[in-house]
User: Fold this.
Amino acid sequence: MKILVIGSGGREHALAWKLSLSSKVDTVYVAPGNIGTLLEPKIENIALTKIEDLINFAKKNQISFTVVGPEGPLANGIVDQFREAGLKIWGPTKYCAQLESSKIFAKNFMLKYNIPTAKHVTFNNGEAAKIYLAKQTLPIVIKADGLAAGKGVLVATNLDQAFNFIDDIFVHQKFGIDQTQIVIEEFLDWTEASFIVMLDGKNILAMASSVDHKRLLDNDQGPNTGGMGAYSPAPIVTPTIHAKVIKEIIQPVIDGMHQEGHQYSGFLYAGLMIDPLGNVKILEFNCRFGDPEAQPIMLRLNSDLVELIELGLSGELDQAHPLWEDKFAIGVVLASAGYPESSQKNDTIQGLAQVTQLPGIKVFHAATTINNQQLCTDGGRVLCVVALAQNAKQAQTKVYQAIDLINFKGMQYRKDIASKVVI
Ligand code: AMP
Ligand code: GLY
Assistant:
């Protein structure tokens, strides 16, 4: 069987790697892929990104099904177009993907279907937003409406910061000319967790729980990023919380989409805030797997991902019973200098060959390239080093021992991934 994965990040490396381990698979093609996928057995990169080229490739090469990694192609309707061409593809349609591609669509959907979320107001002009902000208590959260790779959100602790961010959106158009609306919402100082599921239009299959670390610096300081590291499982997601999330958040998505005349099929990511009493609110939906959550989660999956997606595509997720390794996985992102504002390219990465030999360690590539036969950085989030061990403490020791062996100019990473659950 041949499978196509769309995307080029660490998440896609992890998904393609896991799919390639299936005995059913001859080749996983990744479009466009990265150096990590290029180096894996049974995986081939293809230099295509346009949807029509991908459709032609899938037809010509008898691809059994396609898996979409990032939100961009989903928001552009890749699933609708593949289906129109009679091809199987795993991911939500353009309509359903609005849960991620528009914060305002998502907020309206949550209100309509009683999904618990932070209180919010929307604005389409900066001056009105500033007048409103001046009267609020801080911190407060400002979100650009459209896709911004995790960087379109500011937790403002003072008004100067808030006003500069408003100007960045409306005056300097830092997030693009299409960003003409914002959401301002209450700040929730609770505990965050990522809850990722597979949906087939009617059934729910939860993936292992996880926690991301969105801020750039230790102790949750600095700007928001796409994610600096993640671990799985998340002890905060107890069986009671799990059941509550399914009932109050995930099931209403399936039912709400039905009512709107749509079916949600594909991965769905609910970014949760959980309070000490076990109340849960949702901060955001993403219409895909998390990055870097996929990296530790895939390391713990002991079942065949191909079979799970096949069940998803045929609407039989109720038949799926995945097994998860009863161990702790921690993924730490190594980012280049300047990230998330900018990124430094072409710095030589040293020490990786040694690290890939270590037992219980897997390194997923995101932004790497080969220059003069040397592995080099090629963007913001460069690598994600994942360790699997008996418990959080051992996994943390192991992941940072591995990272000590890796080096590139300006390498930045958080030293406290999973520290809150290490005992
Ligand atoms: P989002 O893209 O909406 O998930 O926001 C990115 C990150 O900003 C989240 O993962 C949180 O760490 C933080 N954040 C977003 N909304 C809130 C909120 N209402 N209260 C506290 N933190 C938030
Ligand atoms: N790790 C956060 C995200 O994938 O959006």
Q: What stands out?
A: The radius of gyration is 21 Å. The pocket of adenosine monophosphate (ligand 1) is lined by residues 118, 141, 143, 150, 153, 155, 185-188, 192, 214, 224, 271, 283-284 (CB under 6 Å).
